[in-house]
Amino acid sequence: MHNGTSLTQFIIEEQRHIAGATGDFTSLLNDIVTACKVISHLVNHGALVGALGSAGTENVQGETQKKLDVLSNEVFIKSNEWAGHLAAMASEEMDAIYPIPAKYPRGKYLLTFDPLDGSSNIDVNVSVGTIFSILRCPGGGSEPTERDFLQAGTQQVAAGYALYGPSTMLVLTTGNGVNGFTLDQNIGEFILTHPRMQIPADTSEFAINMSNMRFWEPPVRRYIQECLDGKEGPRGKDFNMRWIASMVAEVHRILTRGGVFMYPMDSKMQAKGQGGKLRLLYEANPMSFIVEQAGGGAITGRERILDLQPESLHQRVPVILGSKNEVERILSYHQA
Ligand SMILES: O=P(O)(O)OC[C@H]1O[C@](O)(COP(=O)(O)O)[C@@H](O)[C@@H]1O
Ligand SMILES: [Mg+2]
Ligand SMILES: [Mg+2]
């Protein structure tokens, strides 16, 4: 595929290599893309469309929802519930699964999504995103259940994210590499600008929320300390640090120039009985699929994320992903 190809064209081409894919998959992806375009408009217009501030409600994770969390969730539901490709959806902002209402036909796919990622950055005009993952519904989709969503990340048919930054981009994998598209606001179409994205195996850049340092496990503390020791330390080279607090923006930086992103397990979360910060089904799994398809690695610290068997819809896991050699080094520190 050459630069300048539209996303619509690209999706039709991609469908050709997916076993059993019919037009359903193509138009499902197009509906998701439409939802991201609408959310991009809301993000870009912020206060002008009343999209800033708190919604005054809490989601199942006990987090205060932002207006844009709720608005983006509604946009995703409205764009994807009517066309007959889905059996059900699941979202960060909805406690239970959302079976497609009886007034619409049901289809063979399941969609999980984080409608607005990086919510703490909305009101300060820093890049945010949307993350999504597509699964097949066991049993064809007539009576979908929560259990149907609890599939290992290796079962994903496709995954992607939209990044609402200086430009709006969409990055997608269907298991055949990773491609990035930029929204041409003039024609309202995503255009292929970043074909076959690859993550460099080595890096000198790490991303972690340092304010949690005193709660980290020894392997993570050792890895970060060695990065901070730089040239004078065992790594023999200096490292730079970044933390945007929007997972989508961190992963996009890593896809573009390498790096390692870490939201590891820590004693504060353990004390709360929490399995991590980020959610397996609609953050860790789709991002791990994309990162692995771009030549990187994605682990919990001790295991490959895509091999995990999900136990619940909003399950949280530790996430360490990015440049392959760094991720393998961090894995070895956990195994040591
Ligand atoms: O506030 P912290 O500890 O920096 O955490 C930031 C992390 O939390 C998240 O914002 C969680 O995602 P949501 O905004 O979708 O809830 C990630 O995007 C980001 O990596
Ligand atoms: Mg998120
Ligand atoms: Mg979110």
From TrEMBL:
It is found in: Cytoplasm. It catalyses: beta-D-fructose 1,6-bisphosphate + H2O = beta-D-fructose 6-phosphate + phosphate. Substrate binds at residues 117-120, 209, 277. Mg(2+) 1 binds at residues 92, 114, 116. It comes from the Bacteria. Keywords: Carbohydrate metabolism, Cytoplasm, Hydrolase, Magnesium, Metal-binding. One of its GO terms (biological process) is fructose 1,6-bisphosphate metabolic process. Residues 199-334 form the Fructose-1-6-bisphosphatase class 1 C-terminal domain. Pfam families: FBPase, FBPase_C. Its EC number is 3.1.3.11. Residues 6-195 form the Fructose-1-6-bisphosphatase class I N-terminal domain. GO terms for cellular component: cytosol. SUPFAM superfamilies: Carbohydrate phosphatase (SSF56655). Pathway: Carbohydrate biosynthesis; Calvin cycle. Binds 2 magnesium ions per subunit. InterPro entries: FBPase_C_dom, FBPase_class-1, FBPase_N, FBPtase, Fructose_bisphosphatase_AS. Mg(2+) 2 binds at residues 114, 117, 283. The keyword Iron does not apply. PANTHER family: FRUCTOSE-1,6-BISPHOSPHATASE-RELATED, SEDOHEPTULOSE-1,7-BISPHOSPHATASE, CHLOROPLASTIC. Homotetramer. Belongs to the FBPase class 1 family. This is Fructose-1,6-bisphosphatase class 1. It comes from Thermochromatium tepidum ATCC 43061. The gene is fbp.
